[in-house]
Amino acid sequence: MNKELIIRQTVNDNRNILSSPSDIMSTALEFQNLLMMYESAIKQVTTKFEILEDEFSSRHRRNPIETISSRIKDPLSIAEKLQRKGLAVTMDNMVSKLYDIAGIRVTCPFISDVYHVTQMLLQQDDVELIEMKDYIRNPKKSGYRSLHVIVKVGVYFSDMKREIPVEIQIRTIAMDFWAALEHQLHYKKDYKMPDDISSELRSIADTINDTDKRMQELAKNIPDFVDYSTGYDQ
Question: pLDDT tens, 58-69?
Protein backbone atom coordinates (compact mmCIF):
# COMPACT_ATOMS: atom_id res chain seq x y z
CA MET A 1 0.00 0.00 0.00
CA ASN A 2 1.59 3.26 -1.16
CA LYS A 3 0.09 5.75 1.28
CA GLU A 4 1.37 8.82 -0.56
CA LEU A 5 -0.20 7.76 -3.87
CA ILE A 6 -3.49 6.84 -2.19
CA ILE A 7 -3.71 10.23 -0.45
CA ARG A 8 -2.75 12.12 -3.61
CA GLN A 9 -5.44 10.36 -5.64
CA THR A 10 -8.02 10.89 -2.88
CA VAL A 11 -7.31 14.62 -2.85
CA ASN A 12 -7.62 14.68 -6.64
CA ASP A 13 -10.99 12.89 -6.47
CA ASN A 14 -12.30 15.49 -4.03
CA ARG A 15 -10.94 18.75 -5.45
CA ASN A 16 -14.44 20.17 -5.66
CA ILE A 17 -15.06 19.82 -1.91
CA LEU A 18 -11.61 20.92 -0.78
CA SER A 19 -11.91 24.44 -2.12
CA SER A 20 -13.07 26.09 1.10
CA PRO A 21 -12.74 25.48 4.85
CA SER A 22 -16.52 25.19 5.23
CA ASP A 23 -16.71 22.46 2.59
CA ILE A 24 -13.87 20.56 4.25
CA MET A 25 -15.57 20.80 7.65
CA SER A 26 -18.93 19.70 6.22
CA THR A 27 -17.35 16.67 4.53
CA ALA A 28 -15.44 15.74 7.69
CA LEU A 29 -18.65 15.84 9.73
CA GLU A 30 -20.50 13.77 7.14
CA PHE A 31 -17.72 11.17 7.19
CA GLN A 32 -17.77 11.09 11.00
CA ASN A 33 -21.55 10.60 10.95
CA LEU A 34 -21.26 7.73 8.48
CA LEU A 35 -18.71 5.95 10.65
CA MET A 36 -21.05 6.37 13.63
CA MET A 37 -23.75 4.59 11.64
CA TYR A 38 -21.42 1.70 10.80
CA GLU A 39 -20.39 1.48 14.46
CA SER A 40 -24.09 1.30 15.37
CA ALA A 41 -24.61 -1.58 12.94
CA ILE A 42 -21.67 -3.41 14.52
CA LYS A 43 -23.24 -2.94 17.97
CA GLN A 44 -26.54 -4.33 16.72
CA VAL A 45 -25.05 -7.47 15.16
CA THR A 46 -22.59 -7.99 18.02
CA THR A 47 -25.50 -7.89 20.45
CA LYS A 48 -27.19 -10.68 18.49
CA PHE A 49 -24.12 -12.88 18.93
CA GLU A 50 -23.82 -11.96 22.60
CA ILE A 51 -27.45 -12.94 23.20
CA LEU A 52 -26.73 -16.32 21.58
CA GLU A 53 -23.67 -16.67 23.82
CA ASP A 54 -25.75 -15.93 26.91
CA GLU A 55 -28.45 -18.39 25.88
CA PHE A 56 -26.01 -21.23 25.24
CA SER A 57 -24.15 -20.56 28.49
CA SER A 58 -27.43 -20.70 30.39
CA ARG A 59 -29.45 -23.42 28.65
CA HIS A 60 -27.08 -25.73 26.79
CA ARG A 61 -24.15 -28.00 27.50
CA ARG A 62 -21.64 -25.86 25.63
CA ASN A 63 -21.23 -22.60 23.70
CA PRO A 64 -20.55 -22.63 19.93
CA ILE A 65 -19.08 -19.09 20.12
CA GLU A 66 -15.56 -18.67 21.44
CA THR A 67 -14.79 -14.99 20.73
CA ILE A 68 -16.41 -11.96 19.10
CA SER A 69 -14.38 -8.99 17.85
CA SER A 70 -15.08 -6.08 15.54
CA ARG A 71 -13.48 -3.23 13.64
CA ILE A 72 -14.27 -0.26 11.43
CA LYS A 73 -12.15 -0.05 8.28
CA ASP A 74 -9.80 2.92 8.61
CA PRO A 75 -10.00 5.82 6.11
CA LEU A 76 -6.78 4.88 4.29
CA SER A 77 -7.98 1.31 3.78
CA ILE A 78 -11.33 2.59 2.51
CA ALA A 79 -9.58 4.83 -0.02
CA GLU A 80 -7.19 2.06 -1.08
CA LYS A 81 -10.02 -0.42 -1.68
CA LEU A 82 -12.06 2.04 -3.73
CA GLN A 83 -9.02 2.84 -5.87
CA ARG A 84 -8.29 -0.86 -6.30
CA LYS A 85 -11.82 -1.22 -7.67
CA GLY A 86 -11.15 1.64 -10.09
CA LEU A 87 -13.56 3.97 -8.27
CA ALA A 88 -13.19 7.56 -7.15
CA VAL A 89 -12.78 8.05 -3.42
CA THR A 90 -16.11 9.71 -2.67
CA MET A 91 -18.67 9.40 0.10
CA ASP A 92 -21.26 8.03 -2.36
CA ASN A 93 -18.93 5.26 -3.54
CA MET A 94 -17.97 4.44 0.03
CA VAL A 95 -21.61 3.87 0.95
CA SER A 96 -22.82 2.15 -2.24
CA LYS A 97 -19.80 0.11 -3.33
CA LEU A 98 -18.16 -1.15 -0.11
CA TYR A 99 -19.77 -3.75 2.13
CA ASP A 100 -16.93 -4.40 4.59
CA ILE A 101 -16.51 -1.02 6.28
CA ALA A 102 -18.15 -2.56 9.34
CA GLY A 103 -16.56 -5.90 10.18
CA ILE A 104 -17.16 -8.56 12.83
CA ARG A 105 -15.14 -11.72 13.45
CA VAL A 106 -16.52 -14.71 15.34
CA THR A 107 -14.40 -17.71 16.28
CA CYS A 108 -15.89 -21.09 17.09
CA PRO A 109 -14.49 -24.31 18.58
CA PHE A 110 -15.52 -26.66 15.75
CA ILE A 111 -16.28 -26.50 12.03
CA SER A 112 -19.87 -27.47 12.72
CA ASP A 113 -20.22 -24.47 15.04
CA VAL A 114 -19.30 -22.09 12.22
CA TYR A 115 -22.31 -23.24 10.20
CA HIS A 116 -24.57 -23.42 13.25
CA VAL A 117 -23.79 -19.84 14.31
CA THR A 118 -24.31 -18.63 10.74
CA GLN A 119 -27.63 -20.43 10.52
CA MET A 120 -28.85 -18.94 13.81
CA LEU A 121 -27.94 -15.42 12.67
CA LEU A 122 -29.52 -15.68 9.22
CA GLN A 123 -32.81 -17.09 10.50
CA GLN A 124 -33.47 -13.81 12.34
CA ASP A 125 -36.05 -11.86 10.35
CA ASP A 126 -34.31 -8.49 10.70
CA VAL A 127 -31.10 -9.79 9.10
CA GLU A 128 -30.89 -9.77 5.30
CA LEU A 129 -28.27 -11.93 3.60
CA ILE A 130 -26.44 -10.04 0.83
CA GLU A 131 -23.60 -12.44 0.06
CA MET A 132 -21.96 -15.57 1.41
CA LYS A 133 -18.52 -16.89 0.49
CA ASP A 134 -17.55 -20.26 1.90
CA TYR A 135 -13.78 -20.43 2.06
CA ILE A 136 -14.01 -23.52 4.28
CA ARG A 137 -15.43 -25.72 1.56
CA ASN A 138 -13.52 -23.73 -1.08
CA PRO A 139 -10.32 -22.36 0.50
CA LYS A 140 -8.38 -19.56 -1.12
CA LYS A 141 -5.23 -20.43 -3.03
CA SER A 142 -3.20 -19.17 -0.07
CA GLY A 143 -4.81 -21.78 2.20
CA TYR A 144 -7.07 -19.27 3.94
CA ARG A 145 -10.27 -20.75 5.36
CA SER A 146 -13.25 -18.91 6.79
CA LEU A 147 -16.94 -18.34 6.16
CA HIS A 148 -17.63 -14.77 5.00
CA VAL A 149 -21.17 -13.44 5.28
CA ILE A 150 -22.35 -9.95 4.32
CA VAL A 151 -25.66 -8.96 5.86
CA LYS A 152 -27.75 -5.81 6.05
CA VAL A 153 -29.40 -4.76 9.28
CA GLY A 154 -31.86 -1.96 9.88
CA VAL A 155 -30.57 0.53 12.42
CA TYR A 156 -32.97 3.05 13.93
CA PHE A 157 -31.74 6.55 14.66
CA SER A 158 -33.68 9.49 16.12
CA ASP A 159 -35.09 10.60 12.76
CA MET A 160 -34.64 7.69 10.35
CA LYS A 161 -33.88 4.04 9.73
CA ARG A 162 -30.80 3.04 7.73
CA GLU A 163 -30.04 -0.34 6.19
CA ILE A 164 -26.33 -0.85 6.83
CA PRO A 165 -24.08 -3.67 5.55
CA VAL A 166 -21.83 -5.61 7.90
CA GLU A 167 -19.24 -8.19 6.89
CA ILE A 168 -18.95 -11.13 9.28
CA GLN A 169 -16.07 -13.59 9.23
CA ILE A 170 -16.85 -16.81 11.08
CA ARG A 171 -14.16 -19.46 11.51
CA THR A 172 -12.68 -21.96 13.92
CA ILE A 173 -10.06 -21.08 16.50
CA ALA A 174 -7.52 -23.01 14.44
CA MET A 175 -8.40 -21.15 11.22
CA ASP A 176 -8.09 -17.86 13.07
CA PHE A 177 -4.65 -18.85 14.40
CA TRP A 178 -3.41 -19.48 10.85
CA ALA A 179 -4.99 -16.29 9.45
CA ALA A 180 -3.48 -14.10 12.18
CA LEU A 181 0.05 -15.42 11.66
CA GLU A 182 -0.25 -15.40 7.85
CA HIS A 183 -1.19 -11.72 8.08
CA GLN A 184 1.90 -11.00 10.18
CA LEU A 185 4.18 -12.79 7.72
CA HIS A 186 2.74 -11.34 4.51
CA TYR A 187 1.99 -7.74 5.43
CA LYS A 188 5.28 -6.67 6.99
CA LYS A 189 7.36 -5.05 4.26
CA ASP A 190 10.57 -4.14 6.05
CA TYR A 191 12.13 -7.57 5.66
CA LYS A 192 12.31 -10.31 3.02
CA MET A 193 10.62 -13.67 3.49
CA PRO A 194 11.77 -16.91 1.80
CA ASP A 195 10.55 -17.43 -1.76
CA ASP A 196 8.76 -20.67 -0.84
CA ILE A 197 6.75 -19.15 2.02
CA SER A 198 3.44 -19.38 0.13
CA SER A 199 3.70 -23.12 -0.41
CA GLU A 200 4.76 -23.62 3.21
CA LEU A 201 1.78 -21.59 4.44
CA ARG A 202 -0.58 -23.67 2.28
CA SER A 203 0.91 -26.83 3.72
CA ILE A 204 0.44 -25.55 7.28
CA ALA A 205 -3.15 -24.53 6.45
CA ASP A 206 -3.85 -28.07 5.22
CA THR A 207 -2.37 -29.50 8.43
CA ILE A 208 -4.57 -27.20 10.51
CA ASN A 209 -7.59 -28.21 8.44
CA ASP A 210 -6.85 -31.87 9.13
CA THR A 211 -6.63 -31.03 12.83
CA ASP A 212 -10.00 -29.27 12.68
CA LYS A 213 -11.55 -32.36 11.09
CA ARG A 214 -10.07 -34.66 13.72
CA MET A 215 -11.27 -32.40 16.54
CA GLN A 216 -14.76 -32.43 15.04
CA GLU A 217 -14.75 -36.22 14.98
CA LEU A 218 -13.92 -36.17 18.70
CA ALA A 219 -16.67 -33.59 19.27
CA LYS A 220 -19.23 -36.10 18.03
CA ASN A 221 -18.80 -37.85 21.38
CA ILE A 222 -20.31 -34.82 23.16
CA PRO A 223 -23.92 -35.60 24.15
CA ASP A 224 -26.45 -33.92 21.84
CA PHE A 225 -23.72 -32.80 19.41
CA VAL A 226 -25.23 -32.03 15.99
CA ASP A 227 -23.08 -31.76 12.87
CA TYR A 228 -24.27 -28.62 11.09
CA SER A 229 -21.49 -28.86 8.51
CA THR A 230 -23.36 -31.45 6.45
CA GLY A 231 -21.89 -31.38 2.99
CA TYR A 232 -18.47 -30.33 4.24
CA ASP A 233 -15.84 -32.38 2.44
CA GLN A 234 -14.72 -34.76 5.14
Answer: 988 899 999 999
Cα–Cα distance measured from residue 191 to residue 175, given in angstroms and rounded to the nearest whole number: 25
Query: Which residue(s) pair with 97 in the sheet?
Result: none
Q: Which residues pair with 102 in a beta bridge?
A: 72
Q: Rounded to an integer, what distance in angstroms lies between the CA atom of residue 133 and that of residue 103? A: 15
Q: Using CA atoms, how far apart are residues 108 and 219, in angstroms rounded to an integer?
A: 13
Contacts of 105 (CB under 8 A, 6+ apart): 67, 68, 69, 70, 168, 169, 170, 171, 176
40: Cα separation from own chain's centroid: 16
Burial 183-215 (b: 16+ CB within 10 A, else e): eeeeeeeeeeeeeeebeebbeebeebbeebeee
pTM: 0.87
First CA to last CA across the chain, in angstroms? 38
Q: What is the mean pLDDT of residues 12-34?
A: 72
Nearest to 102, CA basis, from 94, 112, 113, 93: 94
- What's the distance, CA 52 to chain centroid? 19
Which positions ≥6 away from 122 have C-beta within 8 Å? 129, 149, 151
**What single-letter amino acid sits at 60?**
H
